[in-house]
Amino acid sequence: MSTTTWGWLVLAFPLAGTILIGLGYKRLARGPAGAIGTLAILLSFIASVAALLSLQDQPEGERQLVSSLWDYAVTGSLDVRLSILVDPLSVFMALVVTGVSTLIHLYSVSYMRSDRGNARYFAYLNFFVFSMLLLVLAGNFLLLIVGWAFVGAASYLLISFWYRRETATRAGIKAFVINVLGDVGLVLGAFFVLRHTGTLDFLGTFEAVEGGAFADHEGALVAGCLLLLVGAFAKSAQLPLHTWLPDAMEGPTPVSSLIHAATMVTAGVYLISRLHPLFEAAPAAADVGAIIGCATLLVAGTIALAQTDIKRVIAYSTMSQIGYMVMGVAAGAYAAGMFHLLTHAFFKALLFMAAGSIIGAMAGA
Questions:
Q1: pTM
Q2: d(CA 205, CA 260)
Q3: Distances (CA, A) of 236 to 162, 229, 239, 267, 319
Q4: Residue 67 β-bridge partners
């Protein structure tokens, strides 16, 4: 089986789990819904491992594989396809997302067993993982934006899962609105890139930038990169678009673990790493990213000292750690930033799940 086929299977399993649970949630008892959801993400993780092994068999200079299902829009010189990019970065992110998400799903089976919305919860959780995988495997800006928007929608559904609590619905709406602001920045940034490169494909864009597409329009490149950073800051809760993250604690504890560990908040770090040729050609924008990351890690770490709620302490810790990652990748330390992303995914997920065990043992006190 080809490397890109494994990439498509990584996406297919969570989507199938979402559809299966979503269509049959009224018939599924609490046990089967959790088992189906967990199995779907486990199969996606296995497919990610297979994609990694298959990618290792490729020559080192040919580990950027693109696969397209069909042309989405073809007009003039613009050719937008439904395509995925399987390379070391996307496979790394897929392994982190599916690996940690599998453990969180398994934890959720017990944690959410007595909740009457159990099947709905696992349908949302599978959709969230599918959206994040679509984001990291996207081969062009269009699919990236779709995945970006889906992640925002899924986070709204999960944060406001207990919708009978007014604080939960308010937190979900707040997260959704701030993330939509980031979506607008991402779309406008992609438009700046498209206008001067004539393509939305990542590999085509990088070639155009290296070929001097912005040689006479450096200001446009800086503006485009700054707008892309707005999307990254909103999703990764960096100053000043950080206020949604502590309120997101209103969702179930496994949701907090999923959003704050390996998935949603690391999307901004991934975006900067994925588009590194653009930021290297626009050092002024990269400097802004590094400065904001540095400010966020200091401010969030200081705020955490004054918190008394266990989950909010961990949430501000997440903001601080993501600030480290953003500062690292914006400064060009991609390996260090992505390594910290990997370690943070595991220790922060474990922290949240341990907090959930404590809260459960103390009857929510």
A1: 0.91
A2: 31
A3: 23, 10, 9, 6, 8
A4: 84
Q: Tens-of-pLDDT digits for all 365 residues of the chain?
A: 788 888 889 999 999 999 998 887 667 666 688 888 899 999 999 999 999 998 888 887 778 888 887 777 766 667 678 889 888 999 999 999 999 999 888 988 887 877 777 888 889 999 999 999 999 999 888 899 999 999 989 888 888 888 888 888 888 888 888 988 888 999 999 888 888 888 888 888 888 888 877 777 778 888 889 999 998 998 888 888 888 888 777 778 888 888 876 678 888 899 999 998 888 888 899 999 999 999 998 999 899 888 888 888 888 888 899 999 999 999 988 889 999 999 988 888 888 888 878 877 776 54
Distance CA 147, CA 7 (A): 15
Q: At how many degrees (to 10) do helices 253-260 and 141-159 cross?
A: 160
Helix axes 283-304, 218-235, angle to 10 degrees: 20
Closest CA to 152 of 85, 231, 99: 231
**Residue 217: what residue type?**
H
* Neighbouring residues of 14: CB distance < 8 A, sequence distance ≥ 6: 40, 41, 44, 126, 127, 129, 130, 133
Of 34, 116, 138, 106, give the one whose Cα is nearest residue 257. 106
Q: Round to whole Å and give the CA distance between 234 and 296.
A: 12
